[in-house]
């Protein structure tokens, strides 16, 4: 049963100053088919002695001011008339702002939701098709029954990636609390989407070494299972000690690894084992890799477009399940190391010319939100005590943990038939 949420206000917030009226092309990376959805963040706050009306006014005012340098977020995304990609029509149409009340309390967000859409109405304006003229930015401030609040924010993924959206949110927060003035921006937003287009490159590229785009046989009804089965949200915290225990397990099998490499390998291995897939089913772990400093020249500071590609670790279910954690960690490590300037050029060329999209058979997608800076977004109610997605889906998201800089929360929905085994394996260090 979904919790009650009542929307009290819904308005469009336009830039507080005049902004350019123009049509801006989005890049080949922005225009990818698999990015035509909304990134949805949910931040939970526990303020004390707060003037709610003043807070709402501060957030709305800060949003209007932030939309001046980030004016494309007040535009509307559409397909280019020639069908070659996407563009944004900038006429200061505005972002949506909603204010609501709910019977939820802050403590309910510490664990996973009871079902994956339990918190759906905390972002009541759900954009099903990002190209149908909806605002590319939706913000909802919901007051909870215990005096706490949630801030849910939806960004059209075609316009920005996680890094870009978090930079925008932190600007809104700094404007709302008076820590920053528009006349003195620490980092100016940069459009420059042409930098991620094939015409910026000098040669044609090959995609022969890009397993993320290659289809693999579905030997177990993977797609139908993931479309039809009931899913159970899960949420497990790993502190520094547990991550270091995982690293110790890999030392005899692989070279020194990062926390992300070993943790993502452990999650992938636990997930695959719990799903009980055929030994010869090909499995992939897809994860986002920031390319801002991997391309030559580097993307400029303040670039808020999609500045990432997907790393892809691939193996058989048998090898992933039966070989040690060091094996899976090595696959993730090598997938990261493959991403260089040439790799990015190949992806840009491929998605631009053929509309190539990642396959979903045997795939677990992982996204790292724990390093975006979402845990710093203070809109005048202190830092958020919880950071997560609005809906807990089958994408695995790594999240920051309040006041524990070295901890990470693992958030993913798993088929209900496999959830107990998955949680047992995930919490078992040494298997």
UniProtKB/TrEMBL annotation:
<protein>
    <submittedName>
        <fullName>Alcohol acyltransferase 9-like</fullName>
    </submittedName>
</protein>
<dbReference type="GO" id="GO:0016747">
    <property type="term" value="F:acyltransferase activity, transferring groups other than amino-acyl groups"/>
</dbReference>
<dbReference type="InterPro" id="IPR050898">
    <property type="entry name" value="Plant_acyltransferase"/>
</dbReference>
<dbReference type="InterPro" id="IPR023213">
    <property type="entry name" value="CAT-like_dom_sf"/>
</dbReference>
<comment type="similarity">
    <text>Belongs to the plant acyltransferase family.</text>
</comment>
<keyword id="KW-0808">Transferase</keyword>
<dbReference type="Pfam" id="PF02458">
    <property type="entry name" value="Transferase"/>
</dbReference>
<keyword id="KW-0012">Acyltransferase</keyword>
């Amino acid at each position: 049963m979904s919790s009650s949420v009542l929307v009290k206000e819904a308005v469009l917030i336009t830039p507080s100053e005049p902004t350019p009226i123009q049509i801006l092309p989005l890049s080949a990376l922005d225009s990818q088919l698999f990015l035509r959805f909304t990134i949805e963040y949910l931040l939970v706050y526990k303020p004390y002695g707060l003037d709610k009306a003043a807070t709402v006014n501060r957030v709305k005012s800060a949003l209007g001011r932030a939309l001046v340098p980030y004016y494309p977020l007040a535009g509307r995304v559409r397909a280019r008339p020639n069908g070659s990609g996407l563009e944004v029509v900038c006429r200061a149409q505005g972002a949506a702002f909603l204010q609501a009340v709910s019977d939820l309390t802050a403590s309910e967000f510490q664990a996973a939701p009871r079902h994956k859409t339990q918190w759906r109405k905390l972002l009541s304006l759900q954009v099903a098709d990002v190209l149908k003229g909806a605002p590319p930015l939706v913000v909802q401030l919901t007051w909870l029954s215990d005096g706490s609040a949630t801030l849910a924010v939806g960004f059209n993924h075609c316009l920005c990636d996680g890094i870009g959206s978090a930079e925008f949110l932190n600007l809104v927060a700094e404007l709302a609390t008076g820590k920053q003035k528009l006349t003195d921006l620490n980092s100016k937003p940069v459009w420059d989407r042409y930098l991620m287009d094939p015409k910026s490159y000098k040669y044609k590229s090959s995609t022969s070494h890009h397993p993320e785009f290659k289809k693999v046989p579905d030997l177990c009804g993977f797609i139908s299972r993931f479309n039809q089965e009931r899913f159970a949200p899960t949420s497990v915290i790993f502190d520094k000690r547990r991550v270091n225990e995982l690293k110790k397990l890999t030392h005899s099998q692989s070279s020194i690894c990062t926390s992300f490499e070993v943790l993502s390998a452990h999650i992938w291995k636990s997930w695959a084992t719990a799903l009980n897939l055929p030994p010869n089913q090909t499995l992939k772990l897809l994860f986002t890799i920031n390319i801002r400093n991997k391309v030559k020249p580097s993307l400029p500071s303040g670039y808020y477009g999609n500045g990432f590609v997907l790393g892809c670790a691939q193996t058989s279910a048998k090898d992933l399940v039966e070989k040690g954690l060091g094996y899976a960690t090595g696959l993730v490590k090598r997938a990261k190391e493959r991403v260089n300037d040439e790799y990015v050029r190949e992806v840009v060329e491929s998605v631009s010319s053929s509309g190539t999209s990642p396959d979903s058979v045997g795939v677990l997608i992982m996204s790292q939100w724990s390093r975006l800076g979402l845990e710093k977004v203070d809109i005048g109610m202190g830092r958020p005590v919880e950071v997560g997605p609005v809906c807990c889906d089958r994408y695995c998201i790594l999240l920051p943990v309040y006041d524990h800089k070295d901890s990470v929360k693992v958030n993913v929905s798993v088929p209900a038939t496999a959830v107990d085994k998955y949680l047992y394996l995930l919490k078992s260090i040494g298997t």
